[in-house]
Specification:
With 454 residues, the chain is α+β, with helices and mostly antiparallel strands. The protein has 3 domains: 15-27 and 147-208, no CATH class; 32-123, no CATH class; 217-434, no CATH class. It has helices at residues 31-67, 82-96, 105-123, 171-179, 246-249, 251-262, 275-309, 320-323, 330-336, 338-352, 397-406, 418-422, and strands at 15-28, 140-144, 148-151, 155-158, 162-166, 182-192, 195-208, 217-222, 226-231, 237-242, 312-316, 355-359, 385-387, 394-396, 431-434. A hairpin with a 3-residue loop joins strand 3 and strand 4 (155-158). The longest helix is centred in the first third of the chain and has 37 residues, at 31-67. It is globular and about 80 Å long. It starts with 14 loop residues before the first strand and ends in a 20-residue tail after the last strand.
Amino acid sequence: MSQGPRTVEGVPDASPTVVTRAFVYALDPSPEQESSLLSHIGASRFAYNHLLHRVLANWDENRTRKEAGEEVTREDYLSTNHFGLLYQWAEIRDHVAPWWKENGASAYNDAAQRLSRALSNFYAGRARAPHYRRRGVGESVRFMGQSVRLVGTHHVRISRVGEVKTYESTRKLARHLERGTGRIVAATVSRHGARWSVSFTAEIERPLPETRAPERVIGVDRGLGALYVGATSSGEGVLRVANPHYLIRSQAKLAKLQRQVSRTQGPRPGVAPSNRWRRANARVQKLHAQVAHQRRDLIHNVTTRLAKDYDRIVIEDLNVKGMVRNSSRAKAIADAAWSEFSRQLAYKTRWYGSELVLADRFYPSSKTCSRCGAVKAKLPLDVRVYECEACGLSIDRDLNAAINLAGWPSETSPAGTDSVAGRGGEVRPRSRAVGASEAHPEEASTEAPTPVGV
């Protein structure tokens, strides 16, 4: 790829940097192509399950030997890295899958990669032990290198499948490939219900500007009543996005469709699902996809506007994983997708030269008066107006929190004095800038988002 100097319009001294992006397009395969894609997905699942069975059997055998007092060395364990699993599949494929040549090599490479990654996450304590993959759950297969490439602007050529039509134009990715500023690394073909899509992982040369001086600073408070409330440190409210409650508003329709599914013959061991079940389940999956797309589109619009219009964005470092354990609010919190909001801000601020700052998780932004700094001992969630007993300020609770966040310092500093907060031990930093080393996938249709009203 070319490494020549480039500039971003309106931003001086922008240096080209290779970033990883995802371009997602909906597919329209023919019945024959759909059958071939399902065969590749099934082959990947079959190889994954057989390799996992061999690894687990090897672990059980070595455990039994240890309990019997035998010496077990590292050489007694099967290799679980990517190439080690591929070598094992090459040894057993003719015996367990004599049909393996009907599908491309990418299907089995995908199985080895997925299992190796799952086992690595298990060893590192980041995930539970991998389990067997089931048909109909997470149906996808990853093609590497030249196994998938663009043909024109409305077709994708997939090895062993042929040219598959896309519903939308692929020109955004095609232009990068034509200019030599992009390279396709891999492509994942997925099925969600009756919908097919392809997600290209591409390395793109993107000029990244220097971080701008923090002249325009905004604090953004995330909530459930108003989804996002933004304000400057001077107290001016500049952003308010109402919570659309996409999932909650679809609950009645979703419940009706799920009742239709429950009255049909679904998949059971040894019993194939009926056609009525397939059609009813496809309607459920379509509604879930619609909700997800609406939510993602709103977040892309808001985050792009913030990253472009402001030099510094301050948000709270929320413990979303812990918050969803509250059963009464878990569905509303999941529907708000706060983690996705911060993830997108992390890479978009880097793209547009702004800065994202995370305020300390335990900073009482809602309980602190934005005028005099007095802190309330308690502030129940049902109290939506902040009333300060010290100075008499009466202000919207979310706006008050956003103003406090806008005044948060950008420097990394301890949470209070060492003698009080740290007690002589390691002190947690009060804030940190993010985005410098984050992965930044982006949907293919979000380079020019629709403006969001204030």
